[in-house]
Amino acid sequence: MALPLTEVSQSQPPGLTTTKAPFIEAALSRGELYIHQPYELYSEANHEAWRKLYARMHDRWVKYANHRFLQGLETLCLTPDRIPRLEDVNKFMAPRTGFQAKPVSGYVPPFLFFDCLRRREFPTTITIRDGATLDYLPEPDIFHDIAGHVPMHTDKAFADTLVRFGESAHTAVRRVQDIRDKDEQARRATSIIKAMARFFWFTIEFGLMRSEDGKGLKAYGSGLLSSYGELAHSVDSPTVQRYPIQLEWVVNQYFEIDHYQPLLFIVEDFEHLFDLVGQLEQWMHQGKLDNVSPGEPALSDADIRSFIEATV
Q: Within a 10 A sphere around the Cβ of 11, how many other Cβ atoms?
């Protein structure tokens, strides 16, 4: 005899679907940012979403991804049919660069996020998007974080760049906390955080790089590498504006998250990217990030306080 619908639903694991996970809601209600990955809560629908996402991305990665990303995929030994256990990901990654995936319950304020990078920790979402909405999600999920970001974290040059970027957040905090006037302090913090967020967006999330032979472009940004549609669009579409990266342009360029990016920037190689982070930090010291253009990304009071109240 069939069970009543309510009993069937109660007998199934609740799953870890983005925006629908009781485990995450409970952690947030307790104010817990850093959590563990309750692997047993993933439903078969969650694993099926991972399978679909991974299967359709494979050929596009081979065609459009930076070669170090492809090497990272091999290093991590990600399984195409099951959501990975973060402890397994860390087992393969840590010996190479010291990085580890650090599970979180949701949004991480800017300074805490950047400081995690300094400590070689990557805040990682544990939920996965609904299988009915594979193409677009306005917030990170475990596929974006693990299949999009983390393969690059196995590369020493890229990992060192992330660490240096995280260290620059400490420089930013000192610039902000030197100001005694509260209004001016908040204004300066807003400007510097916007500059850092824009740099991160146009490089780590949506960056393009010259291919090894110098004849084409490859994606190294995780927002591209986790998007089936935008990965090909970023390299092939004639509607995308692609320019060699200019730091003064990037830190003043607003962005929007709800559509394919119309403007992308190109770095030459990972050494170039590392040097750009050094230049960004130098500009902080010189006050060149104190008055960047207004506009996106929008910042909350908590975002700004994360720098003003930080202990470094």
A: 8
Question: Model pTM?
Answer: 0.92
DSSP-derived 3-state class of residue 284: helix
Mean pLDDT of the chain: 92
pLDDT tens track for 154-179: 999 999 999 999 999 999 999 999 99
The DSSP secondary-structure symbol of 181 reads: S
Q: Using 50, 70 and 90 to split pLDDT, how confident is the model at 136?
A: low
* Residue 65 CB coordination number (10 Å): 23
Joined tokens for residue 276: 């750009």
Residue 182 dihedral angles phi and psi, to the nearest 5°:
-65, -40
pLDDT at 104: 98
DSSP SS3 for 103: strand
Distance of CA 282 to the CA centre of its chain: 24
Q: What is the DSSP-derived secondary structure letter of residue 85?
A: P
How many CB atoms lie under 10 A from the CB of residue 138?
8
Please state the φ and ψ torsions of residue 122, each to the nearest 5 degrees. Answer: -115, 110
Q: Which of 231, 240, 235 is nearest to 263 (CA)?
A: 240
Other Cβ atoms within 10 Å of 16 Cβ, number: 24
220-248 pLDDT per residue, tens? 999 999 999 999 999 999 999 999 999 99
Burial 100-121 (b: 16+ CB within 10 A, else e): bbbbbbbbbbbbbbbbbbbebb
Which CATH number does 14-308 carry?
A: 1.10.800.10
Distance CA 59, CA 278 (A): 35
Q: At a CB cut-off of 8 Å and minimum separation 6, what does 144 contact?
A: 125, 137, 222, 223, 226
User: Pairing relation of β-strands 208-210 and 263-267?
Assistant: parallel
Nearest CA to 25 out of 93, 116, 127 is that of 127
